[in-house]
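tool=predict chain=A
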Amino acid sequence: MPIEVALKSIDFLAQSAKEAKRTPFVCFFGGEPLLRWNDIIIPTVQYAKEKYKNSNFGFSITTNGTLLTMDKIKFLKENRIKLLISVDGCAPTQNYNRPFHDGRGSLMYIEPYMRAALREKLTHTFRATIIPETCQYMYENYLYAIRLKYPIFFALVDSFSTWDDEHEKLLRREFEKIADHYIAYYKKHKKAPIELSMLRRHLKKAQKDIATGNTKRARIVPRMKCGLGQTKSAAISPNGDIYGCQELTSNEGAESVFYIGNIYTGTIDERRDRLAKIYEDNPVSGDMDCNKCSARTACNGGCVANNYLQCGIVSQSAHGYCMYQRILYETAIKIAKELKLGVRKNDAN
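tool=predict ok
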């Protein structure tokens, strides 16, 4: 992205936020955004803070952490920039998933900066991706996040990978171990060892389902879904085009179903409405009959961008996503039942 587009994006966001009576917020996303630290991130942050002093601009960066330095962490702290580091887990996982080009593992370079960012309260979420080749370390990755004292553990399955029966069983077994640890810790300390972000919605639904006996599919509201350009979020591409989701900021331009405008001419309501209608007109589906899926009460239909890229339609989820939702919900049910969450007092006696 040229610096001219970055600064024009700030102008566009400031005006849009003013009209919507919201606080403007920018997430630097990639690729790897720290590659553009000096020529994009620093001048863009400074421009926003100097020109729009009363707008209270917020910023965050999503990075793999390999280019972090203490000087960068100092700048992030001084400018109150939130940090999300994509790190997949302990050494066997991280070094397999994210090696340097020469084969060296990356964890030993990232960990000191993760610890520094945690001390400065710049980050709070351990953001991991689960792939078949390292899924057998999922429990160890969870413990690693706890040892680092992360408040939140967010682990997302790579649904683009091929998940066969063997690796699904491995992942399910790892989540059974996570559930056992979570339950034992909760019983002893009266609190969770860490917030399991991907499990949060499922645990809430599991509690309610146990208490009410609910078995109905979750209701999905298209205009509330991320990625459809209906909420407060959208993505700006390097040339200034606006898309419903950051995963689709390609060079397709107006040909893309996710294209909803440009920072120079504004968003196009007709395109936004069209994107939402495509979702509404195509029933949510997955790798099996959703009415028979064990996760039907908690599933929200998946990431619309991944659905589109994998299945060619924004409302159809691939097997990897569906499989993970079932594991999450079954884990949530186990935790809720063991801790009697959602069970009425007179029912527990």
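The domain at 3-216+330-345 is CATH 3.20.20.70 (TIM Barrel). Residues 345-349 have pLDDT under 50 and may be disordered.
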